[in-house]
Amino acid sequence: MKVRSTKVPNLVVTEETGVYYARVRVAGKLRWKSLQTKVFSTAKLRLKDEETKMRAGAIGTNEDVGAKLTFEDAFKRYRAAVNADASLKPATKHFRLRSERTLRRTWPELWQRELRRVKSDDCRRWLNDFRNGGAAFTPKRAKTKRRGDSPTTINAAIRFLRAVFNVGVEAGVMYANPADALETVAPRRKLLQLPNRDQFAKLVGEIRAAHSRWGQGPGDMVEGLAYTGARVGEARRMIWAHVDEERGMVTIPGEKTESAPRVNPMTPAFLDLIQRMKERYQPRPIDPIFQVRSVLGSLRVGCEKLGIPKIDHHDLRHLFATTCIESGVDVLVLSKWLGHSDGGALVLRTYGHLRPEHSTRAAKLVDFAPPAG
User: Fewer CB atoms < 10 Å away: N or C end of the chain?
Assistant: First the structure.
């Protein structure tokens, strides 16, 4: 990989990717650090801080790292750094490290190679093979092979590669990250096939009838997810103390993002569900609202019996959002109810399609007739 000097001392740019790097000699050793930008003005601003860190020894703590550092060795250092970061939640740590198995399966020979010997072309060949199903595998207890190359899996593996290679870049073993040249894959947009209101009412009735002997827990959770828009993990953490009937508010203890925990007004349907459940269970404030942790099986069986497209937990969140939009709820308000922090951008991207019958009704409102008179 070739680099080109700039008019700014210690600032270089890779000709292949256009990413800027700080190249600083510290204690007689030339060290490299990606500035994570292709914009010259931004790189200049970041360069000074990076030079200070490098000369202060922030990166020089890797003096024990030899030039023959392997990908396996770099991964162990990366894993240790992730696990030692107290600011990261357990789920975040798992997400950052989960692609280890993917890389061991799709590129097994990489792990014992020296980082400095891995080139951008090697990474491209791996990605091309991966994207074209060249690493099919048979999961445990499965009978058929799977490609395992969904956009989510591929993009996570690319981020993992970059993170591990950055260990070598920061240690001065290599001057550029060979995975920087890889392009992520656009995620496939899921075509939502949600039940209409009549179908959903029948689905709830079917699930409640199927569980009449063993309790109404599955039916309660199906309705609860659809009437609140909570993620299934959030619903599992909801307790009766989170319900304020006097104010008509419910606390949803989200933790996916900083804006995920929220206090929302209860929809009439959810308030009705809560009142029915209280009469049935006589719960304590510390009791969980929902008595089951999953309703996937109930949804699958119910949808099959009714002959409607299969839905899962997250589809019930989609159903809530779609119903809110169809009912005239403002996009910004809905995004806050869902725990988004982007001002409604994700809501517009995800739910702009709505359901066919709603779109048909909306189209009839479009009038091209000239005004009377």
Answer: C
